Amino acid sequence: MEKWGRAFYQPCLPLGKDGKRVTGCEEHIRLAREAAAEGMVLLKNEGRLLPFARGAKLALFGKGSADYVKGGGGSGDVTAAYARSLQEGLEEKEREGKVRVYAPLNAFYRENVRMQYEKGAAAGETAEPEIPEALVKGAKAWADIAVISICRFSGEGIDRKGIPGDGDFYLTKEEQAMVDTVTAQFQKVVVVLNVGGIIDTSWFRNHPGIQGVLLAWQGGIEGGLAAADLLCGDRNPSGKLTDTFAGSFADYPSSAAFQESRDYAAYEEDIYVGYRYFETIPGAAAKVNYPFGYGLSYTEFEIEPLKTREEQGILLFDVRVTNTGTCAGKEVVQLYYSAPQGVLGKPAKVLGAFQKTRLLESGESQRLRLRLPVSEMASYDDLGKTEKSAYVLEAGTYQFWIGNSVRDVKQVKESYTVRELTVVQKLTPKCVPVDLKRRMLADGTFEELPSGKAAGEKNGLIPQPLDTLEGVEPQVRAVDYRVRGEREQAILLKEVAEGKADLDAFLAQLSDSEAVQLLSGQPNTGVADTYGMGNLPEYGVPNVMTADGPAGLRIEPGRGICTTAWPCATLLACTWNPELAEKAGAAGALEVKENNIGIWLTPAMNIHRSPLCGRNFEYYSEDPLVSGKIGAAVIRGIQSQGIGASMKHFCCNNKETNRKESDSRVSERALREIYLKGFEIAVKEGNPWLVMTSYNILNGCPAASNPELLTGILRGEWKFRGMVTTDWWNHTEHYLEAKAGSDVKMGCGYPERILEAMEKGLISREEIDACAKRVLEMILKMD
User: In 318, 416, 573, 689, which residue has its Cα 20 to 30 A from 43's Cα atom?
Assistant: First the structure.
């Protein structure tokens, strides 16, 4: 097929073997099931109740056994052929002769959920029914073990709630009553959590009547069967938490002010996010139920640090991992470092590197090597306490721990000494806070912050009414066929691709009105729902379609296409397995490509600052290293298939309430060390072709029109060479975005406003061409 043939002609050409389609194929579904099982986390297993003994008789309680949530809502949703619940997964194991399931209870919940669906309830939003007393008695008389299922749904555009009894972070009264009934009647109880984010764990952590808990997350198309694989011992759990699970919502440092205002979010906890807070701040450690990096296995491992040395500024840690248990399994080795407190203050421990073993048989060992660049231990000094606007290594001893969670670690005997203050990288202030009054220090006190100046320019045009910004579709641009004929001598983009013409010469032939079209979203073609980029057919520029989202190729119902629903991003991160994430990215990208779409709007890289962010299921972790490494792997997988990955939401999109107008107020240190770091890692290790800006304001300036963020940090400091797009239908002026370094406005741009700004001298043709050139360079990378 000729270059860009799929974009131009929308052919129905399968990419699978023997002419079969790969979209939603068995191979991809198997990989989704494998990934789901590898990212589920075993939280509790007292008395080795799990895995279930062969022939165990199970009674499944809770509407979550039938009301399965495969993933979150909004851009993270996927149209799949089916989604297998825990009930269906365990019934499959029953057919395999591994367990037995109490059928009357299954029938009760299946019918109840069906009726609630018919009345308009969505998956995960049904009510917990009261269990008929006769069913409880029958189940108790028949079953050996009770399995309680709890499910949760969250989605784009709305945040979760942290109120006891509300049925989001906490159990509903009805759910609590069901749990009380089951634990009173059964001596052996297992809980399965079908959730997309952090929930309350105190109700089962110290409950003597609940012996087993599996955090199954939202596992995609085969999540229920993947959970059954683990419960029945067909697979061994190896997932580890990428977040800290505290005793209550109030225990998280961001909780008190999370919804303080619709207009802003004050990041006063600063760099002390997640485990950085709980392992550092006095008194916080006791608030943790399950620490960062935690996860049980059906076997045991010995992690033995062997040798540590430095080579060319990189610390190398050799480790031997031995399976000392009785069954095969995988282990995650985590390296943490502790920097001297100095004058800047530091977290007690910071994740520096991690690596997952292969599947180790009982008695088998594997030697791993973890790498930590010395420069990565530097802290950013935004106030000039040591060296202003610089990453510095403060003098003192840097210590290291190796283990399988932030708390289950052994201190490495070797340490690293910095004899005097060392400036690792000298920068200039960017995106400084304007209205953040104070920030937390390592001892739990706060320091006052100076007020800076917001980045960006004021709008020189009369602002657009909001009703012209929300949900407006790009219009089909008429091109007179006679004009095409007159342009037979024009340079076509294909000639640039073939090296026969120069891209600058190509741009020079475009009129102003043609050039600004490249800065705007384009109409849908084929099965696409989220519009295209490019689209100058008279010059051979294809209209490259985009598609959501983080859990699989998202195509609206009614198009006749069902795709693979992959596990939610948080589950994928809990695998701690970049290789597996890369495979999932490549497989998903094949489905994108087969459906004639060229840009996949994923991965989503924002930090889990608060458990209540409605889109946390799309994001990876509270830790930027995990986010960056997993995100980079997904990007590499996607782009290995000639599909552009659009990394998002850049940056500080950590709540959904009033997301298009809310100001994220964060110190420059926290911005660089926490909220930008994952993006930076993914840019440098994944090289995404696109970056999508976030809706929110960042320290007084919209992220989409922030020149210090886009031109200063992303392109200047990180050397990003891809293109930048906005999120869909934001509230920012188009020409200001272009001046700041944002190349395309989606889903609909406003070329007429750019031309008006150009006439008024507010933007130059050179600035327009810079954006247009980056759009074309992105398209030139495609097949």
Answer: 318
CA distances from 220 to 84, 85, 130, 368, 592 (A): 8, 10, 28, 31, 17
Assess contact for 582 and 637: CB atoms under 8 A.
yes
Pairwise CA distance, residues 103 & 91, whole Å = 9
DSSP annotation of 152 = -
Using DSSP's 3-state secondary structure scheme, residue 189 falls into strand
* Residues 6+ away with beta carbon under 8 Å from 485: none
Distance CA 679, CA 687 (A): 10
- Separation of alpha carbons 392 and 426, rounded Å: 9
| pTM as predicted | 0.98
Say if strands 644-650 and 690-693 run parallel, antiparallel, or are unpaired: parallel
Element (H, E) at 644: strand 644-650
Q: Which of 607, 710, 677 is nearest to 267 (CA)?
A: 607
| Closest C-alpha to 684, from 631, 726, 617, 612 | 631
Query: What is d(CA 726, CA 734) in angstroms, rounded to the nearest whole number?
Result: 10
Write out residues in the chain with pLDDT < 50, as ranges.
485
* Terminal Cα-to-Cα distance of the chain (whole angstroms): 9
Choose the catalytic residue: 168, 251, 381, 727: 727
Burial of 463 (0-12, 13-18, 19+ CB in 10 A): exposed
| Strand-strand pairing, 438-440 and 446-448 | antiparallel
Which amino acid makes up residue 533? M
What tokens were used for 2? 């000729």
Tokens read off for 614: 């409605």
What is the rounded distance in angstroms from the CA atom of residue 600 to the CA atom of residue 741?
21
Taking only the tens place, the pLDDT of each residue in 28-70 is 999 999 999 999 999 999 999 999 999 999 999 999 999 999 9
Q: CA-to-CA distance for 269 and 258, rounded, in angstroms?
A: 11
Annotation marks residue 727 as catalytic: yes
